[in-house]
Design goal:
alpha/beta; two-stranded antiparallel ribbon; 12 strands
Length: about 475
């Protein structure tokens, strides 16, 4: 195959910036590999974003790739953009960018960099900065497009504290929070006793494919996003407990005690059980490491159960990603509180912006196409296509060449995307008996934990609370 590419010296290095880890179904299915080869990023229809604050900059080249695909008349099938916390903002901004023909993703990055928040600051200091962030991500002139886009659907996940904890005083809630964090070390389903999931969505039908997560079908509720509740939902899903002002009412849902969606959906906490849902996680962790909840950050030995990867692929930065960053480290929420960066904020800002720029230069669709070509090539000439697929594949094979075209970055040079050859193991199918055993064991553990640890402490919390409660006037 001939090529007329202009290349630059950094091309071979650029291919190492990201890794692609295919789902079990994609890795073992030649038909799906052919689809990926011809469709590139358009192959996927469910995109998960991590709730990781400024670390989202490691994959913000995704937004650039989507905008380019949209301008080429692709990306016209229904796509779900699923995320909590910072990823809910980035995905709303992506839809707004397409609707307004402005790079609102870049505006979010700039606001993140300009924000100054440190230990000792009150919630009153943080609130106006976050409210401005919400309106940058979803400007009023783009609300109709965000809420009613014909193809791009938004799903925002929020944690909701269960009774009786939501009515406890803050110090009692802190104790319960810590108790369940310890319980999570023992069993990942412990958190279902403290939190439920609320999914706020756009479109006519709720994304029920997300119900196979923490707490199962009984642990998630679906609520439509509207102009009245979009900003309160942003507040809820970014509400870090004990840091940001709590929110206890959302229009369309009602009363609750809502906290950062990272508590229940940090990176990937939903099992896609159907092959019609082709997921892609935009991970910010090296080597495809995936955490279900933010609590799992403190359980580094816990591996993601393989069923979560049956139909969800992962794209993530290669360890070499940080080699050219000024600070040789990924952006982190903790950077706001680091003394060196408080005294010299330009260091933090430079590193965050360099991360964003590195991603926008190197996150290209060739990443997925190249992997598919290698996978198909490794199987030789005996690759078969399922019955009924031949005509469809033949009609669209021309798109493959379009996807491999080089992309132009800000400098005007041409570069190709690439991918590492690494893969992740996983079972391609779900065992109903294993799932039932897991669910039953989870319920037993949660009930035991609540009975043995949480409930015995409740009278103590209530008694102490009554001592400090304000006295009623006679």
């Amino acid at each position: 195959m001939s090529s007329h590419r202009k290349t630059r010296k950094s091309d071979s290095w650029s291919r190492k910036v990201y890794q692609f880890h295919p789902s079990a179904h994609l890795r073992t299915n030649p038909t799906e590999q052919l689809r990926l080869q011809r469709q590139g990023l358009d192959y996927f229809n469910v995109f998960f974003g991590p709730a990781s604050g400024p670390r989202i900059f490691t994959t913000c080249g995704f937004e650039k790739a989507v905008r380019a695909a949209w301008s080429q008349g692709r990306f016209r099938d229904e796509k779900w953009l699923v995320g909590a916390s910072a990823s809910s903002l980035r995905f709303a901004a992506l839809i707004a960018s397409i609707a307004t023909n402005r790079n609102i993703t870049n505006q979010i990055k700039e606001h993140f960099c300009e924000m100054m928040y440190k230990h000792g600051d009150t919630t009153a200091v943080l609130r106006p900065m976050m409210e401005e962030m919400y309106r940058i991500a979803a400007p009023e002139e783009a609300l109709d497009a965000i809420l009613g886009h014909q193809n791009l659907r938004l799903a925002i996940l929020v944690g909701n504290v269960r009774e009786p904890y939501r009515s406890w005083p803050e110090w009692g809630f802190r104790a319960a929070f810590l108790s369940y964090a310890i319980g999570n070390v023992v069993h990942p389903e412990a958190l279902r006793g403290l939190l439920s999931r609320v999914c706020f969505y756009t479109g006519n039908e709720p994304p029920t494919f997300l119900e196979n997560g923490l707490g199962g079908k009984e642990g998630i509720e679906f609520v439509r996003l509207t102009k009245e509740n979009l900003y309160p939902v942003f507040h809820a899903t970014t509400c870090i407990p004990f840091v940001q002002e709590p929110i206890e009412y959302i229009p369309g849902y009602g009363k609750g005690h809502f906290i950062d969606g990272a508590a229940t959906d940090y990176m990937l906490n939903s099992i896609l059980t159907s092959q019609t849902h082709r997921g892609l996680l935009l991970s910010d962790k090296f080597d495809g490491v995936v955490r279900r909840t933010a609590f799992d950050i403190y359980v580094p030995w816990r591996n993601l159960p393989p069923e979560f990867r049956s139909h969800c692929s992962v794209v993530c930065p290669d360890p070499s990603f940080i080699d050219t960053l000024p600070e040789r480290k990924m952006p982190n929420v903790g950077d706001w509180f680091k003394r060196e960066y408080i005294e010299r904020p330009a260091l933090r800002q430079e590193n965050w912006k360099a991360t964003y720029n590195l991603s926008t230069r190197n996150f290209v669709e060739g990443l997925f196409v190249e992997w598919a070509e290698r996978a198909i090539g490794s199987e030789g000439e005996t690759t078969t296509v399922e019955e009924g697929e031949e005509e469809e594949l033949a009609d669209e094979m021309g798109a493959r060449e379009g996807l491999k075209r080089v992309e132009t970055d800000e400098s005007g040079w041409k570069s190709e995307g690439g991918a590492s050859g690494s893969t992740m193991s996983g079972n391609g199918s779900l065992s109903s008996s294993a799932t039932a055993i897991w669910s039953s064991g989870s319920q037993v553990f949660v009930k035991t934990f609540e009975t043995a640890v949480v409930k015995p402490l409740q009278p103590v919390y209530s008694s102490i609370s009554s001592i400090f409660a304000p006295k009623q006037a006679p």
